Structures are given as C-alpha cells and as structure tokens.
C-alpha cells in the first residue's frame, strides 16, 4: 500500500521507486498484486506517468488509513513495557 500511495502522490512508477529506494519493477509488481487482489485496475498508465482510476481513488483513502494504522501499531508495540504511549510533536518552519 505504501507503493500505491507513493505512485498516487508522485504520478509515476519510477518517481515512486526513487522515493521508496526500490526498483521500478518492484513498485510495478506491488501494484499488480494489489490490482489482482482487488480485481480492479488502480492506475491509468500513460507515457508521461499515471493517474488514479475511479477504483484507485476509492481505494486511496483505505490505503492511507491502513498505512497510518500500521505505522502507529509498529511504534506502540515496540514501546518498552514501562512506557504506555507515544507523543508526536509537529513543527512548522516559516521562512
């Protein structure tokens, strides 16, 4: 799902691969698995990139929630037993 979200964000398989530090063929394979499992094409592939299909746009919100939940679970499960929570701090830099 991370590959899916990155392709959707960047608009291209190669750009997504570069951001994820994996090969373009790995990104393609991961997207193909998702499309096979969902029985839907998620991207319209074009020469100059790609864009989400209707199914892709619908799936995007689920993928986003699932990836964020997974990241949160990984952080919280990894906490030492004597700690009970994670605190996240956001900072905006103005230039």
TrEMBL record:
Superkingdom per UniProt: Bacteria
Q: Which UniProt keywords apply?
A: DNA-binding, Transcription, Transcription regulation
Q: Which InterPro entries match?
A: LTTR, LysR_HTH_N, WH-like_DNA-bd_sf, WH_DNA-bd_sf
UniProt entry tagged with the keyword Ribonucleoprotein: no
Q: Where is the HTH lysR-type domain?
A: 1-53
Record keywords: Magnesium included?
no
UniProt lists the family membership as follows:
Belongs to the LysR transcriptional regulatory family.
Q: What is this protein called?
A: LysR family transcriptional regulator
